[in-house]
Amino acid sequence: MNAPTVSDLQLTARVDDRGVDVALDAAAGETVAVLGPNGAGKSTLLSVAAGLLRPDAGRVVLDGTELTGPDAWVPPHARRIALLAQDALLFPHLSALENVAFGPRSRGVSRHVARERARAWLDEVGVGELAGRRPDQLSGGQAQRVAVARALAADPRLLLLDEPMAALDVAVRPALRQTLRRVLTDRTVVLVTHDVLDALLLADRVVVVDDGRVVEEGPTQTVLARPRSAFAARIAGLNAVRGTWRDGAVAGPDGIEVRGLSDGEQPTAGAPAVAVFRPSAVSVYGDGDHEPPAGSPRNVIAVTVTDLEPLGDRVRVHAAPPSGPSLAADVTPLAAAELDLVPGLHVVFSVKATEVSVYPV
């Protein structure tokens, strides 16, 4: 296999009927994970990059070549961009080997060289022994590995991954994730995912999209350790209350105030800020039945239980204040039973100020 082609990407796109107006850059050899709730505009972004959707305004520039612009339009097949979706979408009448050889063949490579390249890539992703099988003879995980090999065998300048593991069984995902981690090295990749492990293990940088806009971006570890958006906090397993820094507290929606410790950078009075804390740091009390203990300064938030989620030896209690983002607390099964926690029950979440990190948005 030859060294991968490495390109940098600059993309801006406004798609009016989808309410999307985003900008995204990816440096050469960088993997950028795009996170966000359903309907946020993530797949629209990939469609614009691949040339499957022409935006109302914007540009797609790959390695200095304008592919989409006011006076430029390069069709999808000529972009050398590979898009790998949730479903493998292999050609049903071709063997795994011929599926992978298709890309090089379409670029004018001889049949012999294309097959040799295909065999090498099938070996690289761990399914070389399945070269002669057709798609209906492959498991879901095997088919997706063949699809990865097919995408990379074409030597794309940019690889777009749209939830590549979403359709696979949970047991299959770790192995494919490790395969991707190995074969994506030194490639330019944009990865759309809902899985925090995908971002942590595969991405150099994270971009969070919500309601058609980029709301947060930065190095993966930084975004997931200090999230500034509700979605990033949720996938990182943290609670986040956004608001305004006022009198030593983050003043959130509906009168909620959360006090905490400044995490390095002190918010400015009147400026946007966020308070972040772990579900395991939250205590739960019945509304009016129990008073939170005195002592350390505490934040007390009235919420309504929306869902209960078993987590091994703990129960995660999802709850929401009258307005604002959903919050979570981890309690023991015994505590959940004693409080008779059910959806619709009014309870109080309490968390020590020393367990809360506060920083500017």
TrEMBL record:
Q: Record keywords: Iron included?
A: no
Instruction: Give a Pfam family name.
Output: ABC_tran
Keywords, A to Z, come to:
ATP-binding, Molybdenum, Nucleotide-binding, Transport
Q: Where is the ABC transporter domain?
A: 4-236
As one GO molecular function, the record gives: ATP hydrolysis activity
* Protein's GO biological process: molybdate ion transport
What range(s) does the Mop domain occupy? 294-360
- The protein depicted here goes by the name Molybdate transport system ATP-binding protein
Q: Please give the organism.
A: Nocardioides soli
